[in-house]
Structure formats: C-alpha cells, structure tokens
Amino acid sequence: xxxxxxxxxxxxxxxxxxxxxxxxxxxxxxxxxxxxxxxxxxxxxxxxxxxxxxxxxxxxxxxxxxxxxxxxxxxxxxxxxxxxxxxxxxxxxxxxxxxxxxxxxxxxxxxxxxxxxxxxxxxxxxxxxxxxxxxxxxxxxxxxxxxxxxxxxxxxxxxxxxxxxxxxxxxxxxxxxxxxxxxxxxxxxxxxxxxxxxxxxxxxxxxxxxxxxxxxxxxxxxxxxxxxxxxxxxxxxxxxxxxxxxxxxxxxxxxxxxxxxxxxxxxxxxxxxxxxxxxxxxxxxxxxxxxxxxxxxxxxxxxxxxxxxxxxxxxxxxxxxxxxxxxxxxxxxxxxxxxxxxxxxxxxxxxxxxxxxxxxxxxxxxxxxxxxxxxxxxxxxxxxxxxxxxxxxxxxxxxxxxxxxxxxxxxxxxxxxxxxxxxxxxxxxxxxxxxxxxxxxxxxxxxxxxxxxxxxxxxxxxxxxxxxxxxxxxxxxxxxxxxxxxxxxxxxxxxxxxxxxxxxxxxxxxxxxxxxxxxxxxxxxxxxxxxxxxxxxxxxxxxxxxxxxxxxxxxxxxxxxxxxxxxxxxxxxxxxxxxxxxxxxxxxxxxxxxxxxxxxxxxxxxxxxxxxxxxxxxxxxxxxxxxxxxxxxxxxxxxxxxxxxxxxxxxxxxxxxxxxxxxxxxxxxxxxxxxxxxxxxxxxxxxxxxxxxxxxxxxxxxxxxxxxxxxxxxxxxxxxxxxxxxxxxxxxxxxxxxxxxxxxxxxxxxxxxxxxxxxxxxxxxxxxxxx
Amino acid sequence: xxxxxxxxxxxxxxxxxxxxxxxxxxxxxxxxxxxxxxxxxxxxxxxxxxxxxxxxxxxxxxxxxxxxxxxxxxxxxxxxxxxxxxxxxxxxxxxxxxxxxxxxxxxxxxxxxxxxxxxxxxxxxxxxxxxxxxxxxxxxxxxxxxxxxxxxxxxxxxxxxxxxxxxxxxxxxxxxxxxxxxxxxxxxxxxxxxxxxxxxxxxxxxxxxxxxxxxxxxxxxxxxxxxxxxxxxxxxxxxxxxxxxxxxxxxxxxxxxxxxxxxxxxxxxxxxxxxxxxxxxxxxxxxxxxxxxxxxxxxxxxxxxxxxxxxxxxxxxxxxxxxxxxxxxxxxxx
Lengths: 771, 334
Description:
The complex is a heterodimer. Chain A is mostly helical. Chain A is built from 34 helices and 8 strands.
C-alpha cells in the first residue's frame, strides 16, 4: 500500500485541485508522520519533538479523521474544530476503556502500559481511517486561493508571542526572576483582544477564534505552569488517582475508592497521553490539558457568534475568559476541564441548525454520556440544565399545539436524558463514593429545607444577588476549634486546656504593597484597596445583573427574539435556575463550587450578558452601547486577571504574578517540600501517621505512601507518635488554613506548642518535620 | 486622480491650475496647520516651515496617502518626505520626488540633520521613488550616485510648462484604476511560508545567541524563562528520629547523629553548635565543623552529657543555613 497513493487514501476526491492539494499535503506531512511514529513507538524521547508527535498521534489523528470525514453541511470551521475535538477526546476515552476491559480477558494483566496502549490505539485509528476514508474531503478546499491580510498575520503572530510569553512569565516567577514577563503577558492579552475588537470587520473568519484560543491558553498557562511540581487544589488528588492508574497499569473502580477515580478524564485519558508523549506526569495536566481546555473559549465564541455580530461575540468570549474561575481554578480542575469541553459542545448543538435533527441527537447522546464518565458534578449540572430545558420545551410544545403552531424539535430528547441518568447512576454505583456523595448532598439539602440542618454556605454565595449571608471567618474558626475537641470528658478537658493555652486567632490578610501608581491615587483621594475590592465584588454582581438583563432583553426585543433559538433560550433559563439553586440551597454550595457552576453556565449566559449590556446601554445609543460593552469587558478582564491589583497594590497577591498570596501559601509545591517528603519516606517506618494541614496532606500523598491525618490544630496533636509536617505557610508565615464549610479560614498557627512538646527532627528553610 | 503631497500648497499655486486638469487636491494643506503653529526664522531672517509632528499628524498623512493615487514629494531631504515615503511604501503608491537642492549645501539644515539625510534617508527616498525629477545635470549625477536607475530620472526644462510636465508625469505613473491597485493581501500559502522563514530565522538567531560565549546574559535570561533553576538550600535533620533518647540520668551520655544535606551547588563547611536548655537556662556544650560537598549528605555522631533538670531540650544549630533541630529529654536523678 502506497502511503501517497490517492486511490487508497483519497478515493472520494473528485476535483483535480483537491486531489493535488491532498497529494502535496501527504508528501509534506508523510515524513513528519513517519518520524513522529518512530519516536512514539520506540519511546525515544527528544525534548519537544516526542511530546508533539505523541499528542498528534493520540489526539490529533482522531480529531483530523472526524474533522475531514464528517459531513458538516457548511457549518463554520471553528464549530467543526471544537466538535471534532470533543469527538476525538471521546474516541480516546472509548479506546482506552476498551483496552482496559478487553485486554485482561486475553491475558494482558497490565493493559494500560505503554506497548498495549500505543499498539491498540494506533490500530484503532487505522481502522477508523480505513472505514471513513471514502468520506474524506479537504479541510481547507480553497487554501491555495485563500488570502490573509496583514492584520490577521500581525494578530496571529502576537497571539503566538503571548503564549510564549506566558510560559516564560510563569517559569521566571518559579525561578524567582521577577514577574515582569507575566505582567507583560497580561498586558498583551488585553491589547490583543482590544485590537481584535477594533479590527473585527477587517479580519479573516478564523482570526478572532485563534486570538480567543491563544489568549485563553496564555491565561491558563500562567496558572498551570506555576511551580515545577503539581500545583493547585483538586489537581493534587487528580494526580494521585492518575498515578495509581499508571502504577497499576490498569484502571478499575477498586484502584482508589473515591469519586475522583470514577472520572476517566483523569485516569485513562492522561495515562494514554503520557504513553504517547513521554512527558512527565505533572506536565500532562500542566500543558496538554490546558491546550485542550483553551478551546472552551472558542466554544463560547462559537455559541455567541451564532447569536450576534462578530464583535459582540468576541465580547462574550472575553466575558467567558475574564471570569476568574477560568484561569485561577480550572487549571487545577482537570477532570472538569475535559467535561466543560463536552458540555460546551452540547450547548453549541442547540444552535447548529445546518445538521439534521437525528445527527444532532446522535452527537448530543455521545457528548452527554461522555460527560457522565468524565466528571460527575458537571454531568449532574448538565443533566439538570437539560432536564429544565426539556420541561420548558414540552410546555412550549403543548401551548403551541393548542395554537396549531409547529415548533421544531430540540436536540435533547427524553430518551437521551433517561439514558444519561441511568448511566450516571450505574457509573456511580461502580464507584460507590460518587453515589454516596450524591445521596449525602441530597439528604443534606432536604434536611436544610426542613430546617433540621445548619445553614452553612460557601463564602462564594456572598457574591450573589440573592443577598445570602455566609458565616463570618470568626464564627467558622470557633466552629472548627469546637469540632477538634474530643467527646470523652477527660480527653476533652485536656484538649480544652491546650486550646485555652494556645487560643485561635484569625490571621491578618496580607496584601501587596501599594505601588507608586496606587500611592498617586491615594493622594488623589481614591483608596486603592477599596477600589480593587469594589471593582472585584461589583464585577461579580454585574455579571449576574447583565445576565438577567440579557434574558429579559432577548425575549422582549422582537429583533433579537427572531434571531434567538427558543430551545437555546430554555437552556439559558435552565442554567440560570441551576446556578440559583446552588446559591439558594445550603450544602450544595459547599459540596459543589458556585463559581465553577457559573463558569459552566457562562457558555450559555455570556451571550446574554452581552445582550443585556448592549440593551441597558442602548439608552445612550446603540453604537455607544456596543463600544461601551467592549470597553467594559476589557476593563473587567484587566481587573479580574490581576493586572489592576498588581499595578495599584493594596490587594491580595495573585498566584499568576507573585510568589505570595493565598494560593501560593496553600498550594505551591516547592522543591524543599518534595525533598522533605523524600526524607520522610526514607526515615518514617511504614504505617506511620503523618499529620499536616489538609492541602499539604493531599500534596504529600503524591510522594509518600503513608497514613495522613489532615489537621494539625494542637488539640489533635496531644498524643505523640505521629510525624507532623509543616510547610511554607506554617514555617515562614506562621499561619495555616482550614477548609470549614466550603470556606478557607486562615489562622495564626501556634508553633510554640510543637516546639515545646515535639522533637524537631528535620528542618529546611520552608519545611519542618516534628515527631 | 488623487494627488497627495506634503507641500501641496506651493505646487498648486506655482505649478498647477486645478481648474485646468482633473487632479483633485487632497492635501494641499496637509501639513499647513502644523506649519503655521510653529513659525521660526531661518538664518536669512525669513519664516521657515517647521513641522510639529504628532500622532494626529501621522494619522492624517497615513489616511490621506491611503486614499491617494500619486504621492508628490518636493524634495528628498526633509523628515516629511521620509514619512510620506514610508506611507507610500506601505500602500504601494507611486511617488515623484521633485527637484531639490543638495542637502549638503542647504544652510538651514543642522549638521547632524544634513548628515542623516545625506547618508541614509535621502538615498532611500530617491531609490524608492517611481520618478525623480531633477533640474540640472548636477542633481542628476547626485541621484545616480545614490543608485537611482537612469530610466527613473526625469530632467525638467525650467522654461517648459511645469504644470503640463507634471500632469503628464502623474498620468504616466498613476495606478490605472483603484480596483486594480495591488492589494495588501497575500495568499495564505505565502504567509505560511513567510512565517515559517521568520520562525527559522528566529530559532537560528536565538540558537546562535545562546551558543555564543559572549551572550552570557541572554543565555541566562533564556534559561530563567524556559528551564528550571535548581533551588539552593540546606537540610538539617536527626537521622534516627524514632531512636532519640527520651530519658537519661543526670550526667549520663546522650548520643545521637546529626545529618546535613547540601543543595547549594558548592561545597560548604557548616558549623554546628549543640546547646542544652533547661529551667536553669541555655548553655552551649559542643561545637564543630562539618564539610559537605554539593548535592551530598553527611552524618556525624554526637555525644553530650545531660545536665541536671527535669526537662532538657537539646538543640543543634547549624550555620550558615540558620537551621536547627531539637529534641526533648527527661532527666531523672536530679
């Protein structure tokens, strides 16, 4: 079989031009492909080349096959790309799951090792290609004739520079070389988006999508590449379940008994990517997952572009990536990153009218089911949104039938919903913990509704327009101290004595020093701390106000109503209701982050924010309103990414720009910590318990197989025998943080207790180990 | 036909009558407002034009040239001419450089100004021009010396009708039709090829810069940006934490090991000091040096005598790392 032979690979080409393009493309890429295959199959690691070749083999190939062999019926390239991307991810998950299930039956005990993964996956892609090659059509049929303007080139080049700068910026802060490059990256991001907005009508079709992708990726890299090890909150445990899968060479619910392990996106998917790319484990999450998740901005743009002009669609995308969860938390929530991609594509399907209904439903089924096995919480929210949208659609259909008006059917059907719910329960029963978590949450909600439970809420609920009150930090700290006291009277008396000797005290919030610009503002009578807090807190409220205004505007203005798909409007209502439920009902806000839910809803709600802003601003004229909306989105981006606080000071430091701040203190893993964990692994006998704060315990679990007590309040350390591991926050700052009811509470840690009662057996500048 | 020129007023007044031809004067006063804003006298005592450049002026020039068919420069030795040439290059507009005096002989130019124009800008403006109009043989030779092709040089007869001469020249070089004007868009393939070339050049340049021994600073900055710098620190520890003595008799031996790990990139000689603290105060009981190579760990056995006291805290402080380890011992028999 000839690799370049068109009769084998491109039998369906009719036009001579397409055939010539295809042939030249094959000649161009064949050597690269062969070289890449050699690198991947031999496992020979060449920096940069092997990862690129591996990522192309494991994800690029299925994406390309879907992209070029699907009948898209003229939908825009950006939508084809994101749908193909999601299909590619699903295909990798399916192949991985088949490998994991079938190979043990034929005697392969470690099916997820490198050789089986590479061989079976490559064979799967070959079979996929051979089955679909007759549908092949060129990706860019008019590439030879396509012209690109100077502005497009400039923006794409600047976008590339921004991504490279973001990598350099994060690395430089990691190396203690200053934050200049990181700040410059953020300035570039804002300038790039501003230039795209200004030139929106003079740019080629795909340039805006490329800019959105690049700016999103730059912001994600700024967070994900902080630290040389696994940095962040949930990512620590995600890495743990991934490493367990890798260690076992096999994925099963029994590997780790918790809900994280049920997410194939952080078990099978990274394992397969690792075997192809040869990257270090942490960099699968730090780089590869961010490369994928940056497409979520493109999905948001694609959704908005279906509803409004290019400029306003770009503004919607800016709102989506400016929401702080996108760049501060999502890089630490890798399972949710993949689930968001699938979820966003589900929402996009509501707007793609070019595809026939049965194909949209097929896509929807695939994406919803994949979301269920990718991340449980995202799937619960997605199913909730889709169920509400379906109910509204049924009600609308009932009313329309009475009026004898025909209403087109939506891509979600009751059968798909039922099937997805069944899979969700079945998958949850495999990982007993997922179902238990869901049952506990629902039970707590019911208890809270009848008043039998407390009304603790996550502090994120305080940003909501509903005006719900969260408990103060002082109340939470006292509740925490009470929870550490034992119930037995004698032990309780001793613990109370210790608690009285070392009374808990809330730590003072540390903020960046005021800069020269900040001092100038101070002199002008503007308090920078108040200004930063005001902009931040009002940004959150403004997001909600604009969404509500947009929902009203979309249904009241006839012109917009004509353009809007009613099914999509129902999805927006469903998203708003689900977010409202999270805010209004206690416990859920603790178990599932409100901010994450809002980020998920922003796929649908960001266009309504833009509509709302233009609608409200329409009082002073439509053109002014459009310009004002664009300016507002950029101002919010400037503030929320941390550029404004960094320029003014007087606000807590951001992890992306500083080696300080709450996230740095809590989640940054230094080489000293890893070395100390190594020392502990050598010197602590098996079965020993290590006490540390909860975040450090999760970090240590990636380096040590010991038992962990994830709390270090003195009343819990009265009995000697365990090792106590203190990290940067406790040693350098004298503070520690506990998670109480979904809120982090930081208090001054009484080091004197340990110095007086325990042996200090290991010391580094940032780490101490007591015994 | 749309004509643009920095000093259009003069051209219109002296050489053309717009009522007699179809040239539309786009810009006869493009720079007039700024000329008027800053009058100054030359050496002869007469007002001299001086342009105060600003972003607004640049935008105005840029916009006008974009709309024009021909750019007419009166000379090759002014900053305005350089700016107009740059904009004309940007939009691929034909330019005519009119007869001008040799900058070397212009008394009103400052010396550095004259040098700059003679060396660089004047030559570039002449070389770029579609037509260079010269009044005499001396100017023609000067243009030839600047590598201007002879076919692009046009000699103007001072006695001829200047207006007709220029009008013919405009018609000769102006773009045939606006719609046929060369667009700034290039095929995507050429862009891809161009950017790949730029990428290769950048990679080669960066590679050369990194490999070059004289570019140490750049290499260091690149390393800080794209590789991990090993962090320097020391570790101090008690190697057998579970075997530390917990109870000794007063005056009895307390034996333990001290371990130090050096992660500083150079060999360090550490000084350790063992102190004992009890209710009666703190005293130093033992000190010494421990030399540890980079990346290595050294351990040393230490023995001290227990001082009286119900509770004794033995602390080992290590400098220059300013780290310490400590353990508690109950002293019996006091």
